[in-house]
Amino acid sequence: MSEMTETTLLSVHDLSIDFFRSGAKLHALRHVDLEVRPGRIVGIVGESGCGKSTLASSLIGLLAGNAEIVSGSIEFEGQDLARLSTRQMRAVRGRRISMVFQDPMTALNPVVTIGRQMIDIQYREKRSSAEKRRIAAEMLRTVGIPDAESRLSAYPHQFSGGMRQRICIGMALLMEPALLIADEPTTALDATLEVQVIKLLKELQQQFGCAIVFVSHHLGTVAELCDEVVVMYAGEVVERGAVRDIFRKPSHPYTQALLECDPARIKTPTRELPTIPGTLPDLAHPPKGCIFRERCPKAFARCEVEAPADYAAEGAEHRARCHLLDGKARGTA
Amino acid sequence: MSPLLDVSNMRVRYRTAGRLASVVKRMDDPFIDAVCDVSFSLEAGQTLGLVGESGSGKSTIARALLGLKDIAEGSVRFDGRDLRSLDARSFNAVRRDMAMMWQDPVGSLSPRLTIKSLVTEPFRIHGREGRDLDEEAARLLTMVGLAPDFGARYPHQLSGGQARRVGVARALALDPKLVVADEPTAGLDVSVQAEVLNLLSDLQKRLGIAILVITHNLNVVRHITDRMAIMYLGRFVEQGPTQAIFDQPRHPYTEALLSANPEPDPDAAKARVELSGEVPSLRDRPRGCEFHTRCPHARDLCRTVAPTVTKDAAAHTFTCHFPLLPPQPSPR
Questions:
Q1: Which residue in B189, B270, B275 is closest to A47 by CB distance?
Q2: Test the B interface: residue of A192, A194, A261, A270 with most B CBs within 10 Å
Q3: Closest chain B residue to A260, measured at CA
Q4: What is A10-226's CATH number?
Q5: Distance between CA atoms of A193 and A185, rounded to whole angstroms?
Q6: How confident is the model at residue B34, as a pLDDT?
Q7: pLDDT tens digit string along A267-300?
């Protein structure tokens, strides 16, 4: 199964995840493929309920207790994370893969100083406490907290939201992981702070060289930060490719609709904004055929019976799950 | 014709220490000004957007207008009456003509009431019994694009977009003249957000209501408002026609805010105005121009002297010593 090339850091193949809820099985992720190369920033976009956070949690082994990996593999640095024991996963988590969460207000322990938390996170390292403290202060400086040394003894509530998210990012990078997962890291922040955090992530990525999986529903920040983009809809990856291909030549009707209804793209004021009519399908009983068919303006007979394969679209490594692309895909599929 | 809502020099204060504590600690001024010297007016059928970051005082303005927070200074005239001079009973009568859409669409609906009783609650509160509530519920739900059988459901059975529609229906129940919408699209996906905005625009066109929209989302402001005001530390730093401000902001804070709106285009020219630092505390307002601690163009004058309000044509106002240049007349 493994087609990992040397240049791939993370390779998710055919990943399907079910949630058990009151006797019903919710097929939250279905046949997801994802590749992340070292040092790249990959954005995962989609609307609420599309499975982007489930995918992110599965990469770091933090799925909820009622979730089950039904099929597929998550290859990372020669191991299949989907098959690791709790103990083996613990050795990877925080060290090789770390995570920044959405809400900086609740991600830090409110009754422990920032310094203590940043020292504790280095528990695996054989360093003296003084050395750990020095490294913690240095990281605070790196993420732009002024007066780092003395701020180590401050508690989380003494920092503003933007500062706290900087601290969270610093803590995630403290162990110099190969992969950083950022789940909506700027959603809770104001616009001017969001811009600061995006810029910080970009700078740190260059400094530390880690790859970043950036989960967001904000198309603007994804366009700005990411090298590659994965578009998800109702638990499936419907399109993936380089950021320019996705924004310039969106090939899946869902991606096209999503881009069209973003009011940020519409420069002339209008009081009739485009929408995507219809609602998400019931993931307990996903419809036969294409998952987007019921809301797709371009659906035809084949979409009702056959789930589309991953067809190649225009551009290098640009793929989309839509029958409209069949034919262009000859020779590669 | 006088405007529907006319606010002048409004100041709203919050107490930061209790009465006893402020005496013990010998605080001269145990208050902070959450809203400071704010003036604006809103005509029937028009939409005004209040924009600003967290803590800038946007929601406090809404609360003060609706009588949920006392106004310390200034005057508020609504529909020809001075709201501050009214007693509780006459205020309640006026209050019928003002409706609020709360920020959290699901949280603002009581989880134990059905949708039908939620949308007809305004009739019960304002004593307009005698109407057929079933009929009213069906009318309101249809108006916001929900099937009448939604009336039997409970809030937890709704999606975010549907809950928002119920919020709109509640707000419109009493045929208000003014709707105050606090972050009407917060937490909604872009496709649903567009539906809600279209619904608001459509209802405004049909019913001629005035809307005050509070949001930090500039994309929303651009599409649904006629005029906009930008707030910083409880003050308006700029106010004017939405299109004019988007074309050429005059205040550096507006410029920074507009440019901090990432374009969904990887090749967009990123002429970004970056602000250093964070918003100062309301307890310790900077001297001079309150924006000078973060302003990329700040000069010595800004650090000592507070700028006054400048007004150009089209009632575009801004508070800055060194405003950005106005647009050059185009050669065409």
A1: B189
A2: A192
A3: B191
A4: 3.40.50.300
A5: 11
A6: 92
A7: 888 888 898 888 888 888 988 999 999 999 999 9
Kindly state the percentage of chain B with pLDDT values over 70.
97
Nearest to B190 among A191, A222, A262 (CB): A262
Contacts with B270 from chain A: Cβ below 8 Å? 224
Place of tokens 């366009």: A223
Token pair in block for residue B26: 């010998």
- Say whether B218 and A191 touch across the interface (CB within 8 A): yes
Pick the residue with more confidence: A49 or B255? B255
Query: Per the CB < 8 Å rule, is A224 touching B270?
Result: yes
Which of A47, A259, A263 minimises the CB distance to B220?
A263
Q: Do A269 and B223 touch (CB under 8 A)?
A: yes
Give the tens place of pLDDT for each residue, B186-241.
Answer: 778 888 888 889 989 988 999 999 999 998 888 889 999 999 999 999 999 999 99
In degrees and rounded to multiples of 5, residue A190 shows phi and psi of: -70, 160
Identify the pLDDT of residue A2: 44
Q: What is the mean pLDDT of residues A6-26?
A: 90
Asked if residue B269 has pLDDT above 90, the reply is no
- How many Å lie between the alpha carbon of B261 and the closest alpha carbon of chain A? 7
Q: Which two tokens stand for residue A34?
A: 């994802």
A139 versus A103: the higher-pLDDT residue is A139
Residues 6+ positions from A302 with CB-CB distance below 8 Å: A289, A323
Query: What residues of A are in contact with residue B198 (Cβ under 8 Å)?
Result: 271-273, 275
User: Residues, chain A, total?
Assistant: 333
Cα–Cα distance for residue pair A250/A329, rounded to 1 Å: 16
A191, B260: Cβ pair inside 8 Å?
Answer: yes
Inter-chain CB proximity A47 and B224 less than 8 Å: no
B260 with A194: Cβ contact below 8 A: yes
ipTM: 0.79
**Shortest alpha-carbon distance between residue B214 and chain A (Å):** 14
Q: Tell me if B210 sits within 8 A of B47, measured CB to CB.
A: yes
Distance from CA of A292 to the nearest CA of B (A): 14
Whether the Cβ atoms of residue A82 and residue A10 lie closer than 8 Å to each other: no
Q: What totals of helices (H) and strands (E) does chain B contain, helices first?
A: 11, 12
Q: Over range B288-304, report the average pLDDT.
A: 93
All residues at 6 or more sequence positions from B20 whose CB lies less than 8 Å from its CB, including other chains: none
Residue B88 C-alpha, separation from nearest chain A C-alpha, in angstroms: 37
Whether residue A321 is predicted with pLDDT greater than 90 in this model: the reply is yes
Which of chain A's residues have a Cβ under 8 Å away from the Cβ of B222? 263, 269
Domain ranges for chain A, please list them.
Answer: 10-226
Nearest to A39 by CA among A212, A278, A216: A212
Q: In chain A, which residue ranges form alpha helices assigned H by DSSP?
A: 52-59, 86-92, 104-107, 114-120, 129-142, 148-151, 161-173, 191-208, 219-225, 243-248, 253-260, 301-305
Over 90: is that where the pLDDT of B35 sits? yes
Residue contact A192–B257, C-beta within 8 A: yes
CB proximity list for B272: less than 8 A, separation 6 or greater: A195, B259, B260
